Amino acid sequence: MSQSPKRICIVTAGHLATCPRMVKAADALTEAGHQVRVVSADYLPWAHDADAVLRQTRHWAWNPFDYDKRRKPVRYYQTGLRSRFARAVAKAVSPEKLGLGWAARAFCRSHPELLKLVLAEPADLIYGGTSGGLAVAFQAAKRMGVPYALDLEDFHSAEQVDSEAARLAHRLIENIERAILPGAAFLTAGSEAVGTAYEEKYHVKPLPVLNTFPLPKQAPKFEVSPPGSLKLYWFSQTIGSDRGLEDAVMAMGLANIPGELHLRGVAVAGYVETLNGLAEKAAPRLKIFIHSPAAPDKMIELAGDYEVGLALEQATPLNRNLSLTNKAFTYLPAGLAVVFTDTAGQRPLAGSLAESALIYKPGELESLARGLKAWADHKDALLNARKAAWQAAVQRWHWDHPLEKGRLQAAVANVF
User: Fold this and answer.
1) Distance (Å, whole) CA 392 – CA 357
2) 3-class DSSP state of 207
């Protein structure tokens, strides 16, 4: 580096395991020679274990705030009561009239504790990610008298499925974003479409830094299932409805393809039974398998056991239409052909992948069925699609590309 190393604090209101963008940022800025500390929350049992595994291979400092119900019951109930009280105040006076401190407490359950952890040590730059980490970064930086930067992986003011609680959350985060986005040293966004939405709403200009990952040390093995069948894969933190999985099941049935649908994540109560019921009626030759969540470092390796990755983002809520999630950028380096829904966030990537991608409009089952049938019946074509996916990852869609990790490192360097 031409500059002296800086002290950088990265803060997220999520777990390390649920926010790989912040983990990659910590890795990248440590690699650039900076002294990095990460502040995060800790409240999900599976993610607590995944965080511990991930930390074994990292060289930056880490300060989590643990409010897990089983390990820290007093903290769990204290933060819950405070959060409910703050939301009640927000409803009473309207989110737009709240000061930033109250809005942040109403929006993020662990806001005061995360802020205290960030302020516990000096820093030259605060970088905040996830919606709950934005106000923490801003307030900490103002108290320290240092610059702050923010990561906008999602379009937070249109992130949740419509409900009374969602409308309140969206108004709160809009209040927060309107106050703090213009003063950031730089902003990063999870996709071009997300960045454009923020530019149109707040007149700011985020830098797109995509959800790519480092390439695995070895090329995929490209193992194939028997002709006429398919092994499909999908993952998320939560396995539930309105994620496009019903499309995949019904399309497999419409095409009469025997195969397997593997889902990784924590299932919403009753959802797996509902999906299995749909499969029994619409796709009796399809078997559904559920797998436990895993740490981000393991996701590419785990995806390599399958043939087709599903990136089935929906048109609503708006954020899902704009997002370009971890899924596709996990499938490509794992050597999977990818099924994309035709959304604003995914369309440019899908269009660049040519033969390794299948794109369809959500709900257009015949189009999806035809594409899956072609891959199932012509395994040579599927193998070529998978090899093309791997080559696309090698040539462009990986974290070490100058437009990904390099863009973030350059943005930080420009601050100083």
Assistant:
1) 11
2) strand
The residues near 309 (Cβ < 8 Å, ≥ 6 apart) are 232, 233, 234, 303, 327, 328, 330, 331, 334, 336, 337, 338, 339
Show the tokens assigned to 129.
């990610």
For residue range 333-366, list pLDDT tens digits in order.
999 999 999 999 999 999 999 889 999 999 999 9
Which of 236-240's residues contact partners 24+ apart within 8 Å by CB, and which partners?
236/264, 236/265, 236/327, 237/18, 237/265, 237/266, 237/293, 238/265, 238/266, 238/267, 238/268, 239/263, 239/264, 239/265, 239/266, 239/267, 239/268, 239/271, 239/272, 239/290, 240/267, 240/268, 240/271
Q: At what angle do helices 73-93 and 100-107 cross, to 10 degrees?
A: 130
**89-138 pLDDT per residue, tens:** 999 999 999 999 999 999 999 999 999 999 999 999 999 999 999 999 99
Cis peptide before 317 (omega within 30 of 0): yes
What size, in residues, is the chain?
416
Q: Sketch out the chain's domains with CATH numbers.
A: 7-212+400-415 (3.40.50.2000), 230-395 (3.40.50.2000)
Q: Please tell me the distance from the alpha carbon of residue 328 to that of residue 313, in angstroms, as a whole number.
A: 11
Q: Rounded to an integer, what is the distance from CA 163 to the centroid of its chain?
A: 22
Residue 87 CA neighbour count, 13 Å, CB half: 17
Distance between CA atoms of residues 94 and 172, nearest Å: 9
pTM exceeds cut of 0.90: yes
Long-range contacts of 192-198 (CB under 8 A, 24+ apart): 192/324, 192/345, 192/348, 193/321, 193/322, 193/323, 193/324, 193/344, 193/345, 194/152, 194/153, 194/154, 194/155, 194/319, 194/322, 194/323, 194/324, 194/345, 195/152, 197/155, 197/318, 197/322, 198/152, 198/155
pLDDT number for residue 266: 96
What residue has token string 């009280």? Answer: 85
pLDDT at 2 over 60: no
Nearest to 297 by CA among 51, 103, 92: 51
Distance from C-alpha of 79 to C-alpha of 83, rounded to nearest angstrom: 6
Question: What residues contact residue 92 under an 8 Å CB cut-off, 6+ apart?
Answer: none
Burial of 254 (0-12, 13-18, 19+ CB in 10 A): middle
Residue 1 has pLDDT above 90, yes or no: no
